[in-house]
Specification:
Largest sheet: 10 strands, mixed
Number of domains: 1
Helix content: 10-25%
CATH topology: VC0467-like
Order of helices and strands: EEEEHEEEEHEHEHHH
Number of helices: 6
Structural class: alpha+beta
Shape: globular
CATH superfamily: VC0467-like
Distance between the termini: 52 Å
Radius of gyration: 17 Å
Length: about 190
């Protein structure tokens, strides 16, 4: 059909919850989109650390985990499954990919937790482990964007391994230009203003 255009992929970009988003799963959430196409969207919440240490659930990966070395709640779906992201700095000419790591966007990629950690140890910047993920059916995320639930902004490799994840929402907004940077000052409880 003419006139139909392929939607722009948001893979690798951040969804930053607007103050209007009322779902408690995503209050002040910063979500890295790992996949976004006509079949739906999948991402992980970058700023929800749990008290569970990586060594308690994936002992062999504990030494590679970034600080804080805890499992993060990646979203409300599939909480019994784990996935890991890591930054592989630099270019790798002549190599399709680093063994045990699949590029998602730029230097950010998914780690194969079934691979031996020593295979990746020399290549990886900070590793972050997530329990669960955030998922959207086809068109669902686009509807939420139209409703004003999310800001879509560029990600930076350091977002995946931010040492102070509780401050990531404000930090990501603060680095934006114009009015969006002002949203970073939005109070946690506007009724106290």
């Amino acid at each position: 059909m003419s006139g139909m255009t392929e939607p722009v992929s948001l893979t690798g970009r951040l969804l930053v919850a607007t103050p209007a988003l009322t779902d408690p799963n995503f209050d002040r959430a910063v979500v890295l989109l790992l996949d976004h196409d006509v079949e739906g969207s999948l991402g992980v919440v970058l700023n929800r650390p749990t008290p569970v240490e990586v060594g308690a659930v994936l002992e062999s990966w504990a030494d590679l985990a970034g600080d804080p070395a805890v499992v993060f709640q990646g979203g409300p779906v599939g909480l019994d499954s784990a996935l890991a992201l890591a930054v592989v700095p630099g270019e790798h000419p002549g190599e399709e990919e680093v063994l045990g790591w699949r590029r998602v966007h730029g230097a950010i990629g998914l780690v194969d937790l079934e691979a031996p950690p020593e295979l990746l140890a020399a290549e990886l910047g900070g590793l972050r482990v997530f329990a669960g993920y955030a998922g959207w059916a086809p068109g669902q995320l686009e509807d939420e964007l139209l409703e004003g639930a999310w800001y879509v902004v560029d990600s930076e490799p350091g977002d995946v391994s931010a040492p102070d994840p509780e401050r990531l929402w404000r930090a990501v907004l603060r680095r934006q230009r114009g009015e969006l940077a002002l949203v970073a000052t939005y109070p946690d409880d506007p009724s106290l203003n």
